[in-house]
Design a protein that fits this description.
The protein is mostly helical. It is built from 19 helices and 3 strands. 56% of the residues lie in helices and 2% in strands.
């Protein structure tokens, strides 16, 4: 397989002469089978050879010992290649450049490492039963547990940054410091973070891991019902955004279909990511959206423009795969898109079109769909059913702003009502 990438036999011999030459070649075969570009393969082989040399110099003699050298190698790599990094984000990118190929290869050649890396949870050593508790005792859905996982991983990283390794050293001051360092989150996300942390602290106290219940020391930000304004955009701005999509490319075909689903049906990002080929009934022209928040599914008439966009992507953009999901990543390995990937594409095109909106993302387009229905005088019940709201209270926020009436007042047309 190496001969596919290198012309000179001596180069292939040098790779195979590495004490981990066999695992490297096996990893190259895996990359090829999963559709990685030649450029990616050629960039990763020298990195892995350097990893092999690093581990050999530090005493490794068996493949099973390699996981213990990952962090040391990453520090070595960042010190060597990250000198010009001016931000933590840039440094993190250099770190991931080394971590991803090494861990991918080890998952392939050391099955036990693959099992461990897939099941690694935040605070796994401190509270190994916490996520089982969330699922089995509290009955939370996997999507909700993912939010707990993400927030607790941030908390775990924060404790590592301040060199706090013993749970009995936790205090209200430390918890307050973590919340303060989360200032980049909106109030809703910050409230979710505080909730996850309180549940975790109560669990630690219940299991006698900490001596005092610290959950009461955490206050969520105060939020008032109907205090926010939906971050929708106008229909002219929607058209402007759609015009920025290059529909000649596979990624453009995919993203155009995603954007249309967002603005036409007001779907959530996770609902689009979960769509499969079985959810489209081409004969009856129906789109089925399963597993909505209210534990039901919604069937929509399949709009001709949406159906045409999806069909164009399926025929000319979607990678060949046996997986039934509709939308996939365009870069190898070809995996189904995640909800964050869907939201990220919406954010990308909103910014590309120069549309000013706070926190641009998939919900911006969902809000736009709902606001358009409100402006068309549909009932709140009909709108809530259409977009899958669990409660009419979720829809009420959209009637706070009568956009057209405000425009009239702003232009002087509605002065007689003042």
């Amino acid at each position: 397989m190496l001969e596919r990438y290198y012309v000179h036999p001596d180069t292939c011999d040098r790779v195979r002469s590495s004490w981990i030459g066999g695992p490297i070649e096996r990893y190259v075969e895996w990359l090829t089978e999963n559709g990685y570009s030649s450029r990616t393969v050629l960039r990763r082989i020298p990195l892995l050879m350097e990893f092999g040399e690093f581990t050999r110099q530090h005493g490794a003699t068996k493949l099973e010992e390699l996981p213990g050298y990952i962090e040391g190698f990453i520090l070595h790599w960042v010190k060597k290649h990250g000198q010009g990094c001016k931000t933590d984000q840039a440094r993190k990118k250099v770190e991931e450049e080394a971590r991803n190929p090494v861990e991918q290869m080890l998952c392939l050649v050391i099955p036990s490492f693959g099992d461990k890396s897939r099941t690694r949870e935040p605070f796994q050593d401190l509270a190994p039963g916490f996520f089982d508790y969330l699922q089995n005792e509290r009955g939370l859905k996997e999507a909700t547990i993912d939010h707990y996982r993400s927030n607790l991983r941030s908390f775990e990283n924060y404790l590592q940054e301040i060199n706090l390794h013993e749970p009995h050293n936790l205090s209200p001051v430390i918890l307050s410091g973590f919340v303060t360092n989360s200032s980049g989150l909106c109030k809703t996300s910050l409230g979710t973070r505080c909730t996850a942390l309180r549940v975790f602290l109560r669990y630690l106290y219940r299991e006698r891991i900490i001596a005092k219940d610290l959950s009461s020391t955490l206050d969520s930000p105060r939020m008032y019902r109907l205090s926010s304004i939906p971050r929708s955009i106008t229909w002219d701005e929607v058209n402007r955004m759609l015009e920025t999509v290059d529909r000649r490319t596979p990624i453009g075909k995919r993203d155009f279909a995603i954007l249309l689903l967002l603005v036409t049906y007001g779907l959530r990002a996770r609902e689009i990511a979960a769509l499969t080929l079985d959810d489209i009934d081409w004969r009856r022209e129906r789109l089925r959206v399963p597993e909505r928040k209210a534990d039901h599914f919604t069937a929509y008439p399949l709009s001709p423009i949406v159906g045409t966009a999806i069909l164009d992507y399926l025929q000319h953009g979607r990678p060949k795969t046996s997986d039934r999901h509709i939308f996939f990543q365009v870069m190898a390995p070809y995996r189904p898109m995640t909800f964050s990937g869907v939201s990220g594409r919406a954010s990308h095109y909103l910014q590309k079109a120069g549309i000013p909106v706070s926190r641009p993302g998939s919900h911006t387009l969902r809000h736009t769909c709902v606001q358009r229905l409100v402006d068309a005088d549909f009932s709140l019940k009909a709108i809530g059913d259409y977009v899958g709201h669990r409660s009419a209270k979720s829809t009420e926020v959209y009637v706070k702003v009568d956009v057209e009436a405000l425009r009239e007042i702003g232009s002087g047309v509605g002065e007689e009502i003042l």
